[in-house]
Amino acid sequence: MTIETIHPKGWKAAKGYANGMIASGSRTVYIGGQIGWNAEQVFETDDFIGQFEQTLKNVLAVVEEAGGQASHITRLTWYITDKKEYLARQKECGQAYRRVMGRHFPAMAVVQVSALMEDEALVEIEGTAVLLDMCIFELLCTLHGTSKIGELERSIFGSLQRGYC
């Protein structure tokens, strides 16, 4: 599986997101809208950053349940209820994002909405992740002597760098 970031020539560099991504040899995970409550559907905070971070953790939990990791996320759409608070707290948003997702920045959009379906929710995020097809994954794991996705990706990347593929 390969995921490639798309950046049109001559465009100014995207900061904290990608303009587009291409994935091949894969299966797709569509991540339904996640909000800032815990696994018991209870909000632990009414703070924007707290809910934002929990929302990202929920997005990542869906991807991990499908067998993926943050680097497999190709697209996120954030729905926020307060543009002014988001803009005032962008630095904190970036810090929370990196704590959960690391330095992986897929194609993203942020949209202000008048309300979300759960009255207490301040942010909702939905997205798409692209995972290696399981048959291909099992074959590659056998060939590379591992069962962990991170080790497999490093092994494949090393093979590509050495010109084996």
Description of the molecule:
The protein is an alpha+beta fold and 165 residues long. The protein has two domains: 1-8 and 28-131, 60s Ribosomal Protein L30, Chain: A (2-Layer Sandwich), CATH 3.30.1330; 133-165. The protein contains five helices and six strands. The protein has helices at 48-65, 83-88, 90-101, 134-144, 149-161, and strands at residues 2-6, 20-24, 26-35, 73-80, 107-112, 123-132. The strands form two sheets. A four-stranded mixed sheet has the order 3-6-4-5. Strands 1-2 form a two-stranded antiparallel ribbon. Helix 1 (48-65) runs parallel beside helix 3 (90-101) and helix 4 (134-144) packs across helix 5. The longest helix is centred in the middle third of the chain and has 18 residues, at 48-65. It is globular and about 50 Å long. The protein starts with a strand and ends with a helix.
What is the CATH first-level class name of the largest domain?
Answer: Alpha Beta
Stretches with pLDDT under 50, minimum 5 residues: none
Largest sheet: 4 strands, mixed
Total of domains = 2
Short description:
By secondary structure, the chain is of the alpha+beta class. 36% of the residues lie in helices and 27% in strands.
